[in-house]
Each structure stands twice: as structure tokens, then as C-alpha cells.
Amino acid sequence: MKVVRDKKILDLRVKLAETTYMLTDKIVCWAGCTLQAPHHSVRQVIKNLPSKVYCTSIHQGSPSKMYFLGVTNFITHVNEIPTQTLDDFLEAVRDIKDNSYCKLRIVTYENIPFAQTLKVNYHYFPTTELLKNDVSEWVFKKIEATNS
Question: Using alpha carbons only, what angle is made at residue 59 by residues 90 and 51, rounded to the nearest 5 degrees?
């Protein structure tokens, strides 16, 4: 690695670390919010994560925007079902019918818990999943609700 110190270029040998555990390999879009496992910088700041369902973006006009689900929030429960992982979350939302309400338990980035209801709309905001495969390509998958 080359660095500049005191107006001099220095060549340094830097030991590399394995980083595959820090990479995003799964993204879920649900009700207009993008969810993923908390990325490395979040895990550096928050030692005890409320869950591994972390909201990274909200789409304009979506149910998540209209019902004030916030970016950087963790979803810990859907209809009182614990959602510690994205797979738990997908299992919990699978039974929510289109145009019906669900209850979310959320913890903010500042560790403040609250509850919020949200009405889903699968026509405009379907549940989808992006998975990184073995050759680092993203694979798109639409997930149908069991009772749509």
C-alpha cells in the first residue's frame, strides 16, 4: 500500500483480512422498503443488534413511506412473530394478504422501540428478493404471498 506521510510516499505491507462475512448477499424489497442484514459500519456502531432485518431505503409513494417506516430501522416482529433474520421476515410476511394491515415492531438506530401498522400493496410493491449466487451474480426472485 502506498501512503503519503510528511510529504513522502511510503510503501507499507498491509495484512489483508477475510471480508466475506461483511458483504451483502441478500436483499429483500417489501412494501416499498429495501431490507438487508446490517452492513459492516452498522455492526461497528451497534454491538447488540435488535435484529438482522435492517431498512436501508424507502421508495417514494410506497406503503413504507406512507406509514413512516424509517431508513436505518430494524424490524424485530411482524404480527408478533419474531424476525431475527431476513428468512424469518419473509416467512412472517408470506401470510399477509394483499391490501391488508400488519403490525410491525421496530427498533430505531438509536435503540428506541415502537410499533407501527402498515397496509401492504403487492400490485405496486411486490415482495422480491435478490440473492448473490456462487459466482457473485445477483438473482432476482419474486415472492408471492400465500393468501393473495
Answer: 40
Is 21 a member of any domain?
no
C-alpha cell recorded at residue 58:
424507502
Tell me which of 12-16, 30-34, 128-132 is least confident.
12-16
**Domain region containing 96:** 26-143
Looking at residue 146, its pLDDT comes to 73
Residue 79 domain-assigned (yes or no): yes
Question: CA–CA distance from 119 to each of 46, 63, 69, 106 (Å)?
Answer: 30, 6, 12, 16
Phi, psi for 84 (deg, rounded to 5): -80, -25
Q: What is the DSSP letter of 9?
A: E
Q: What is the CATH number of the domain that holds 45?
A: 2.30.42.10
pLDDT bracket for residue 113 (50, 70, 90):
very high
Mean pLDDT calculated for residue range 38-61: 94
